[in-house]
Automatic annotation (TrEMBL):
Lineage: Bacteria, Pseudomonadati, Pseudomonadota, Gammaproteobacteria, Alteromonadales
UniProt similarity note: Belongs to the ABC transporter superfamily.
Protein name (Swiss-Prot/TrEMBL): ABC transporter ATP-binding protein
InterPro entries: AAA+_ATPase (IPR003593), ABC_transporter-like_ATP-bd (IPR003439), ABC_transporter-like_CS (IPR017871), P-loop_NTPase (IPR027417)
The organism of origin for this protein: Pseudoalteromonas phenolica
Residues covered by the ABC transporter domain: 2-218
Pfam families: ABC_tran
Gene Ontology molecular function, alphabetical: ATP binding; ATP hydrolysis activity
Superkingdom of the source species: Bacteria
UniProt keyword list: ATP-binding, Nucleotide-binding
Amino acid sequence: MISVTDLCFSRADGDQVQTLFDDFSFEVSTKEQVALLGDSGSGKTTLLHLLAGLLTPDGGQIIINGEVISAYNDKQLAHYRRKIGLIFQHYQLLDCLTVKQNILFQHQLNYPNQTAKEFDLLIEQLGLNGKLNKLPHQLSGGEQQRVGIVRALINQPKLILADEPTGNLDQARSHQVVEMLTSLCKERQINLIMVTHSQQLTQYFDTVKVLANGQFNE
Ligand SMILES: Nc1ncnc2c1ncn2[C@@H]1O[C@H](COP(=O)(O)OP(=O)(O)OP(=O)(O)O)[C@@H](O)[C@H]1O
């Protein structure tokens, strides 16, 4: 469950201050899957970064599954971030590591002496058998994004934040990837918030929220 109350956040841009959120409040219930739309520059990525604890609000409260992350210090935020899954438009895979190493990198940092429980199952479900020893640049965009999805799911998060994960894929692949991602999150009862510019992709989600002028128009 996500609860945001009276969120305030401004960005300094040279001498100018741009207020993106001013007393913005909303809730996302447990397991809900949300497609987040909005014009370019409306603040979708900024909102995701606030929910990920990568940015600190100027005011208000952000509570994620009972954790008041808006009150956390850097160390607490680092610990919180290990428990969520992040998926990016440009995949952000490390090109010097194989697919398998990329997927397990964070898991091994988090849990040095544990095997990743769902590794084999996720590799099978996302059709990545046979790709594990390849380097990211040897994969197609769709395959790289599926690696990003396994990497996000392997730590068994309760929340996944995805920022335009299909921005680099064609329409058919975008639908495949989003269908896969939403159904895997549903099976595992994971909250998913995904930024997209595609109205068509919203069909896979429980809720569509449109960000405009620092508020949701539902
Ligand atoms: N690092 C930054 N420093 C200053 N201003 C920034 C920074 N990042 C983003 N902004 C500004 O904050 C506003 C919101 O940006 P954000 O990236 O959150 O929008 P968005 O809705 O995700 O846009 P898009 O759909 O184009 O990705 C924009 O006006 C942008 O120029």
